[in-house]
Amino acid sequence: MAELWELSAAEQAAAVKRGEVSSVELVRAHLDRIDAVNPAVNAVTRTMPEDSLAAAEAVDAARAAGEVLGPLAGVPFTIKENVDVAGQPTTHGLQALADAVAPVDAPVVERMKAAGAVPLARTNLPDLGLRIHTDNDLHGLTRNPWHPEHTAGGSSGGEGVALATGMSPIGLGNDLGGSLRNPASCNSIASIKPTTGRVPSAFTIPAPDDSIVGQLFAVQGPMARTVADVRLGLEALSGAHVRDPASVPVPLTPPAPGTRRVALVADPPGGETDPRVAALTRTVGDALADAGCVVEEVEAPRFAEVIDCWSGLVGGDLAVSFPLIDPILSDAARDTLRPAVEAMAEFGTAELSGLWMLRHSLTRAWAAFFAEWDVMVSPTWAQLPFTHGADAEAEGLDDSVLRTHARPVLPANALGLPSAAVPAGLVDGLPVGVLVNGPAWSELLCLEVAELIESAGLAPAVPIDPRS
Q1: Rounded to whole angstroms, how far apart are CA atoms 218 and 201?
Q2: How many whole angstroms separate alpha carbon 199 and alpha carbon 196?
Q3: At 175, phi and psi to the nearest 5?
Q4: What is the CB neighbour count within 10 angstroms for residue 87?
Q5: Can you tell me the distance from the alpha carbon of 455 to that of 187, in angstroms, rounded to the nearest whole number?
Q6: How far is 466 from 284, CA to CA, in rounded Å?
Q7: Catalytic site residue 185?
Q8: Pick the catalytic residue: 22, 179, 201, 238?
Q9: Does the first or last residue of the chain, that is N or C, have fewer Cβ atoms within 10 Å of its Cβ?
Q10: How far does CA 200 lie from the centroid of its chain?
């Protein structure tokens, strides 16, 4: 019989609804699992046992009273430490914000609670979420449970590890440059970066207002072990919210039935791809063809230009803010960000304006591409997870890990498109994932194709015990 912490979020919710298990039992099982495995991986930064058990007792009382339960009633969930939880510090992985307590819940936390889910614990991230490797001077390094010397990804690396090891069934992260999907690939779990505006984003720490790049490129989203649980999380989170004026009330509409046209990009432009990663991506394409999809290996439209556009706009944003954040960053975070800042040192208003115009041109090119193809499937990372700290060793943008490893994740951020991440297998014992990108507002179509990939059985089962 499976342990309670091995069950999916959907299975846990169903068990609570049927009265087969209490929410209190689920919370205690996950707290025990955290105690057992977190010391080996350092993914969870703090638990909230008193609040968690009180919330679980309320769910159990509601069920006993015959009240209608939410779709995630009684299910514990974890929250990245740059997402506000009322009464808890929103540290962003910084010593300077170690005691910065949020006055209110972020909209995504509010909505998970409204669906009946129980806040369980906070998870680790790099300084200000600005690396794709999870380490900081406040909480330390998060280790990959598949191989302790390799990165867990970032910036939602603590979430990815907590899910992969059974410390949590579902969690909340965010994504400016793959931060929901990088850890999914590195830890063999699933996630989705929604269309910009699909899920509301609002925060109080360090300030309630964001830069242009943050407003247009960054999103909140769910992470889980199964695609079905990611869909459950997305359904709970979606929709307009008064605290985010850019959020929209676009319904999550199931795609019309039909044969899916899949554009396969096994070797994304802009850098080298590990041949084993490309081969596994082509195996995914074969599995989709076997499932009835029309699959063709194609060239993505102006892919390298999209990477350059994302890099320039994010680098320009960093160049403006770097003098403010430099004093509170760890040395490794500073070393990681410096190449991007230096590359933008000579950029002025005219250059940045040109990049925004380029983005508009690229958005139109990808819209035309998705008029021909339903989705695009590519590797999540072009290379295997790197060893700890390799992201801080790059001397320039061309050899940064964002270029060498994570460039496939960037178009969805740059263009505001949905992008689902799903495990695809192991190479040398390290997880490899693929992305299912689609046109704006096509999250359920992306998840449908991701579920076809999941059902092919290419990836190993999770949760796992951390490996030494």
Answers
A1: 9
A2: 7
A3: -155, 110
A4: 12
A5: 18
A6: 26
A7: no
A8: 179
A9: N
A10: 15
Question: Phi, psi (5° rounding) for residue 196?
Answer: -55, 125
Helix H or strand E segment including 237: helix 227-237
- Residue 155 annotated among the catalytic residues of the structure: yes
pLDDT at 207: 92
d(CA 358, CA 362): 6
What is the pLDDT averaged over residues 61-84? 98
> pLDDT tens for residues 216-235?
999 999 999 999 999 999 99
Extract the tokens encoding 381: 């990372």
The two structure tokens encoding residue 87: 């009464």
| Contact between residue 1 and residue 63 where contact means Cβ atoms under 8 Å apart | no
| Sequence letter at residue 351 | E
> Structure tokens of 59?
């769910």
Q: Which residue has the tokens 């995914």?
A: 284
User: Bridge partners of 387?
Assistant: 150
Q: Is residue 156 flagged as an active site residue?
A: no
202 neighbors 243 (Cβ within 8 angstroms): yes
Q: Rounded to whole angstroms, how far apart are CA atoms 75 and 97?
A: 29
In a 3-state reduction of DSSP, which class is residue 307?
A: helix
Distance (Å, rounded) from C-alpha 229 to C-alpha 201?
21
Q: What is the pLDDT of residues 366-384, one digit of tens each?
A: 999 999 999 999 999 999 9
CA dihedral angle for residue 359, residue 172, residue 138, residue 136, rounded to 10 degrees: -40
- From residue 113, give the alpha-carbon distance in Å to each of 12, 77, 166: 15, 9, 20
Select which of 8, 80, 156, 400 is catalytic: 80
Active-site residue (options: 155, 191, 330, 419) = 155
User: What would the DSSP string read from start to end of 339-408?
Assistant: HHHHHTTT--HHHHHHHHHHHHHHHHHHHHHHHH-SEEEEES-SSPPPBTTGGG--SSGGGSHHHHTSGG
| CA separation for the pair 459, 426 (Å, rounded) | 7
Strands 170-175 and 219-224: antiparallel
Counting every residue written for the chain, the total comes to 468
| Lookup result for tokens 């795609």 | 255
- Structural tokens at position 257: 């039935």
